[in-house]
Design a protein that fits this description.
16% of the residues lie in helices and 43% in strands. It has 166 residues and is an alpha+beta fold. Strand 9 and strand 10 form a beta hairpin.
Length: 166
């Protein structure tokens, strides 16, 4: 029994160290290009001329793109079922909203091979605030994060503008 526990301890210490070294070398290669974009550059809360009982929140559609511009395949290692995340930040960098907040992901380790010339797209929606508490008008930063190890990210800017009166 003691041998099994010792073996488990050694394996749990050695395997992550090996995986980190292999992935860091690939992640350092500039051949993987990561970009993020919004479906629009300006958003409003609600529709013009509509009266709401609860203040509505707008919604943006974000796409994180990973492109392999090299001639060799790249293996991305993920430490859970989560492969991407989106974060809305104010212009000072403070996190205001995270797509993955409140979501559950499997604990399974997984690998994804990105072939030469292949592009991966991860698209999801993100509300611009909480029910009855929309983000205020202004400038924001959307960060798209590829949650492999080590993670990598890209950013883009967008605005929340006033909803015109009818």
């Amino acid at each position: 029994m003691k041998r099994i526990l010792l073996l488990c301890a050694v394996v749990s210490w050695v395997l992550p160290a090996c995986a980190d070294e292999a992935v860091m070398g690939e992640a350092a290669d500039a051949a993987l290009q990561v970009t993020v974009k919004c479906d629009k550059k300006e958003y409003m809360h609600g529709e013009p001329g509509v009266v709401y009982i609860i203040t509505p929140t707008g919604r943006l559609k974000a796409t994180l793109t990973v492109a392999n511009a090299s001639t060799k395949a790249h293996t991305l290692e993920f430490r859970s079922g989560q492969q991407y995340d989106f974060v809305i930040r104010d212009t000072k960098g403070k996190e205001l909203k995270r797509w993955s907040a409140g979501r559950a992901f499997t604990d399974a380790l997984q690998e994804k091979v990105v072939a030469p010339g292949e592009t991966l797209n991860f698209t999801d929606g993100l509300s611009l605030g909480e029910v009855g508490k929309p983000l205020p008008e202004g400038d924001y930063i959307l960060e798209g994060i590829l949650t492999c190890h080590p993670p990598t990210s890209a950013t883009t800017k967008f605005k929340i503008i006033p909803t015109p009166a009818r």
